[in-house]
Specification:
Two copies of one chain form a homodimer. By secondary structure, chain A is α+β, with helices and mostly antiparallel strands. Chain A has five domains: 161 residues, Molybdenum Cofactor Biosythetic Enzyme, Chain A, CATH 3.40.980; 58 residues, Molybdopterin biosynthesis moea protein, domain 2; 73 residues, Beta Complex (Molybdopterin biosynthesis moeA protein, domain 3), CATH 2.170.190.11; 80 residues, Beta-clip (Beta Barrel); 195 residues, Periplasmic binding protein-like II (D-Maltodextrin-Binding Protein, domain 2, 3-Layer(aba) Sandwich). Chain A is 26% helix and 27% strand. Chain A has 16 helices and 37 strands. Chain A has a six-stranded mixed sheet, with helices on both faces. In chain A, strands 22-25-24-26-28 form a five-stranded mixed barrel. In chain A, strands 31, 32, 35, 36 and 37 form a five-stranded antiparallel sheet that branches. In chain A, α12 links the parallel β33 and β34. The longest helix of chain A is centred in the middle third of the chain and has 20 residues. Chain A is flat and about 110 Å long. The two termini of chain A are 59 Å apart. At the A-B interface, β11, α2, β15, α3 and α7 of A face β11, α2, β15, α3 and α7 of B.
């Protein structure tokens, strides 16, 4: 069990050192010539100059007749001019104007007087209704400078300017080598200990956005010799090589050794979190990068380093992307040792945009799927207080974020089901739902951080749901609870109930899994404990907190715990036994000013629809509220 | 010469009618099942639920040893706990935790004491350093609702959730039929009257952004029978058919007749400009759309109608895209008959974003290549005054627009050349240069609409350049002229000078082509006329105004005019003879507050570089200023 220590080089320094080295090592693009008809999205190597004018002849801009404008001079209603057939040439839009003509009269302005004679009652001026040579593009004009990305209309302009082929920068080919004994190809039935290899799919999608092609090599086991061969092969076939996982300093981490033997390791260990154990190396003038195995760390390194490296390849400084100012909804504590990359969800509620930090675990890829943006906390900063304005790098366009219904509160899969029905109906907004518990809903709606949120808060004195909490925490003119569903809460236990749990008080004898503080289910748990005269200390696992019903069910199914409170649908999903404990009123708390918001209205419309009731029945454990 | 009149249906009504009809005709998507590893960017048909948890077993989150946490309780510096080999299992990050363990101790926290015994000085709590089952994703959780576009990280999350295949919406195949007797495939040497077929390339690029595939059919001549066959073929092979050109009511416009014979024409003629003569039809439940031939009209119809139709296919309301508020820099007059789509360039100067209308010609595709956004003027609006705030639909991300050096003023190809050198150096900003003449530069810099602009303004009294104009129009603390180049102005005439023009005063006998009012070259022309005692009325073509030196040269080369004033490099490019008239001082006027702007500094650095001097020499006609 040897342990090598990594460096902790500041991100900026790591980047500077690495990119300088790559440039000096001759790393950069090559080019190829392609047809303009297939060049959309490509980046041109050199400036493109028109080789012909567009139009390249004097063209009629209308359907009508071409004339010498001088013969029309003086035409008016009182003194119409009659044109003999010899005076004009019939032209359609786009037709060339005869050399002795310099104007076109629109067909709408012609009066037929028989024998192909035409009368006009107003004159045309020279070059009227004619697209003169070069009106759009003049031969010799630069259509686009070097390094321009060809848009659809630019391809059109190049073709209009007589350019049929264009030299474009060859997309770099990035070789991806997944490594690790435990890594297996994607499967729906992995064996215990198998790690599903999905990072290469994530990389491929990201590389495509970076304008790079990718080639995924077979999974290489933790064997130095085999990995060495794989890296050499990729190095000979690709422009950039990524070694996925094996970048840390654990016993099987050969990447940095192999890069050292083939070339140079510039950086091993960057002062960022997640993403620290990256290896930045070079061999034969090509970058070899060791990417950490945790998906979130991997994505950060892809974004921060590999994206930049591809910009170095293209010879362009990388654009920063869109940012937005937002108000931080929760305090964040950060380490002074690292530059931290926090995934946040964003929402515009009322006038301001708020940013809510998502899970910080390096293994939680769903923190990226949910992320609307990234908040960077500098290395020398201990954290940021709630309510502070922060700058967020956007992961999706602001206009999408603006059209997001924000639901923060108690977890129930029904929110996802309503969202799905909305999606199927083609509604043009997103739903962003965060599991923050019922009390989380109260605070979020009160503080203008959410449009609405699910609540099921038992008043332990009256046995009533929700009302007393709302009255206590929110001025009544600010929010309203609307009808949701009734649902059964109960104890979830292993199939067959091997420990013979009969009622809530039996949990003193088993390993319990709890819900987080502030959740309605936790409040129910605490109420039941008190009612049964049980103190939390008597419960093994009281401090083991999860955020969703399914997470509790999953742990019971896996054997990490024996019992936990949750809703019937979660127990059913995991094939668990279910001991009903109570029926509760799950409602939606809505900020008053959003009651008429079209997003909220659309949500409620689905919530009360027959289609949705059918889904609830399928899930089980729900009643009409 | 028959003329059919088109309808003039308001855009909203046309859209509503058409999309309703398409939905009722059963137009919509089909789906296919693809591997998740290749599904990035695709749109899922149904909600995706995880089929396994991620992690699907309790996994070590660290390199270290797995233990039963209870044996570590009480460990401290004073009372270290020693672990026997039987107490622990060595685990790497990602390894499964043995069933009898519930925590991992990091390798960094272990003290080796020999004989495989390990000492620890602090306890671990249950599940510490363990990624419990479902930490990221719980089996049964909805990973994404129907209609979600799969991002790279979503593909990762699907694979992590055990989903290896996914039902996605099949991309629609759009058949494009280019039509017209005069239409030819892209070429650098078209014959007179040939129209280069580039619209299908533009469409293909746009369709790709709309998530549609395209198939371009051979060019079909203006023959009703052949076009009928082509449309039928495309209809049988594709989901949507576009007939390019032939949508108007001219003598060769068969599209609407053919659609009528196969199905229904819903709309022929929309109250928009450009784009009016579109045909919106349906046959066999598939849209057939007649697209106008002018590229700008075509792009508007593609954007407004075809993009929507593809959204109808996908069953999703179309997102509106990003907009920005901007101040209109110039008055726009608009027709009450049409909803107008004005291409604008945008620039952030100081605090505000200004929008400058680009060429409104339907044939000017470069108005789209230069456009940063589109301004819609409603049908019932006569126009918009300069200085008004308007809403612009962005064509490129705002962050790109913010990083744009805006140069408005006198035309000289040298600006493009400097831009190209900047691009080659990898500078991360765009240059947007507008030809508005030297006086345009004075006004634009004064009014904060441009960072800088080229000027060559002859003071006809003193013979000096630029200074007196700046003194007159701009407070001296607001702008400064910096050194540019010297250049030769002269009369451009046909090769061999067939009309024997010797000096400026000879232009009274020929067809002249002028520059626009406010341009330095126009001021020079007027000065020379006055000096020679010639009145503008004596000049044939005095009112024929062009905006660039190359445009003047192109018209002389094409025979539309015999002579015009311009710079040597333009004459050289077109193989024209050049009769020098004077040397002038071409300078750059810069807003004082932008003298230190990094974009302006980078521009000037290149302007004064040896590399640029070499380019000037190649172009010819320049001297050091």
């Amino acid at each position: 069990m040897k342990h090598k220590y990594l460096n902790n080089i500041p991100l900026d320094e790591a980047k500077r050192t690495y990119y300088e080295h790559l440039k000096n090592a001759g790393f950069g693009c090559s080019s190829e010539t392609v047809a303009v008809t297939g060049a959309c999205g490509r980046i041109i190597k050199n400036a493109s100059y028109a080789v012909i004018c567009s139009p390249h002849y004097n063209a009629s801009a209308m359907d009508g007749i071409a004339v010498d404008s001088r013969i029309t001079f003086g035409a008016s209603e009182k003194t119409p001019v009659t044109l003999e057939p010899a005076d004009y040439t019939v032209v359609d839009t786009g037709d060339p104007i005869p050399d002795d003509c310099d104007a076109v009269i629109m067909v709408e302005d012609l009066i037929e007087t028989g024998e192909n004679k035409l009368q006009i009652i107003s004159a045309v001026s020279p070059w009227q209704n004619v697209r003169q040579v070069g009106e759009d593009i003049c031969m010799g004009d630069m259509i686009a400078p070097s390094g321009t990305e060809l848009t659809a209309s630019l391809c059109g302009a190049l073709l209009a300017g007589g350019i049929t082929e264009v030299e474009v920068i060859k997309k770099p080919l990035v070789g991806i080598i997944p490594t690790g004994d435990e890594i297996v190809a994607p499967t729906s039935a992995p064996k215990k200990g198998d790690i599903i290899e999905f990072n290469s799919t994530v990389f491929t999608g990201m590389l495509d956005k970076f304008k790079a092609d990718s080639k995924i090599y077979p999974i290489t086991p933790d064997n130095k010799e085999l990995l060495n061969i794989a890296v050499k092969t990729a190095l000979s076939e690709c422009d950039i090589v990524l070694v996925s996982a094996g970048s840390s300093a654990g016993r099987d981490d050969y990447t940095s050794d192999i890069i050292s033997s083939l070339g140079t390791v510039l950086v091993h260990g960057i002062a960022i979190k997640p993403g620290k154990p990256a290896v930045l190396g070079e061999a034969k003038g090509k970058p070899i990068i060791g990417i950490p195995g945790y998906p979130v760390s991997a994505i950060v390194i892809m974004d921060e380093i590999v994206g930049d490296v591809i910009s170095v390849y293209y010879g362009k400084e990388r654009a920063n992307g869109e940012t937005v100012k937002a108000v931080l909804s929760k305090k964040i504590v950060s380490s002074l040792k690292y530059n931290e990359f926090i995934r946040v969800s964003l929402g515009r509620i009322g006038g301001k945009i708020s940013a809510s930090p998502l899970s910080r675990g390096a293994g939680v890829i769903t923190s990226f799927t949910k992320a609307d943006g990234i908040l960077q906390i500098p290395q020398n900063c201990e954290g940021i207080e709630a309510g502070k304005e922060v700058e967020i790098h956007l992961s999706r366009p602001l206009c999408e974020i603006e059209k997001t219904l924000i639901i923060t509160g108690s977890h129930d899969p029904l929110i996802d089901e309503v969202t799905d029905i909305l999606s199927k109906k083609g509604f043009p907004f997103r739903v962003c739902s965060t599991h923050a518990g019922s009390m989380g809903a109260i605070y979020a709606v009160r503080d203008g951080l959410a449009h609405m949120g699910g609540i099921h808060l038992l008043d332990t004195e009256t046995g009533e749901y929700n009302t007393s909490y709302i009255d206590k925490y929110i001025p009544s003119e600010n929010a309203t609870a609307v009808r949701g569903v009734g649902r059964v809460q109960g104890l979830m236990v292993k199939k067959g109930n091997p420990l013979g749990i009969k009622e809530f008080s039996d949990i003193t004898d088993v390993r319990y899994v709890n819900r987080q503080r502030g959740s309605g289910t936790r409040i129910l748990c605490d109420y039941l404990l008190e009612k049964n005269g049980i103190s939390p200390e008597e419960i093994n696992g009281y401090g083991n907190e999860e955020f969703t019903h399914t997470a509790v069910a999953a742990l019971i199914a896996a054997g990490n715990a024996d019992a936990g409170l949750g809703i019937y649908s979660a127990a059913k999903m995991y094939g668990l036994d279910f001991i009903p404990v109570c029926n509760e009123k799950y409602e939606f708390l809505i900020g008053k000013e959003y009651l008429e918001d079209p997003m909220v209205k659309a949500f409620l419309e689905v919530l009360y629809s027959e289609k949705f009731k059918a889904r609830l029945e399928e899930m089980g454990g729900y009643t009409e509220a």
